[in-house]
Amino acid sequence: MSIAVSSCTLYQPMLGTLPAVRKPGDVAAAANWQFPYGGQVLAVASPLPHVLVLGAGGLHAYNTQRDSSNNYVRNRQYEAGLGGYLTVGHTWLSAAVGAGQGRSYRYGRFTSPDLLGGLAVGATFGSTGGRGKYQPVPELLGYYNTRFAQVTARWPDVNRPAKEYGASLRVTQARFSSLALNGVALPRASQYYLQASVLVQQPLWRRLQWQAGGSWDVALTNISNEAAFGRAPLRAYVGVAYCPASARSTAAVAP
Hints:
Elements: E1 27-34, E2 37-45, E3 51-62, E4 72-88, E5 91-111, E6 122-123, E7 134-156, E8 164-181, E9 184-185, E10 190-205, E11 208-219, E12 235-242
Antiparallel strand pairs: 1-2, 1-12, 2-3, 3-4, 4-5, 5-6, 5-7, 7-8, 8-9, 8-10, 10-11, 11-12
């Protein structure tokens, strides 16, 4: 689920990859593979001028070994949103809000000191060292609801208009409706994340385009002195997108 040596989180934000829709009736879609294990699909439509609706779903995992010496994490979630967009020259701008639900399960080793009433929930990358600092904790299971707001910009390469760049900034609230450690219910937790994403996109075949990007997620609030759902790592992904129009056609669309 991550490519950086950093704390792995129980909650994993969705990727902020938003394909551009430029006029009423446009429908765009994208499918991304997140390294090393994970996938996400996204669809965006414009039912009315300057209005967009979106839906997305994802499954992410870390590790394939489910034993007491390695972290095993599996996260699945979906979300829907509503927003608006406009074009300024060849630049596409949008803002959207939405909500979703998810389930996350992890199995492995967690830090032990004073957390959520003395229960161990913090995460390590499966280290067996420390002698007393780390304790094997078999299962942590959480169900959560999310709310998010994001802004996105896309613009063409000056020298190669067929190539597009994109950037988005998203704030997400993850509120756990259920959280259990070894089957024992824990106090419900809530946390905010700030997520910054960038991507590059180029034509692949007809209206299909390939894309690659990265995302950095920062926990804005912790629920304890020790981060139970610590800073999410840098993530990288590749994928394909179906886009009805490229940035070259935006000049014909009124902002």
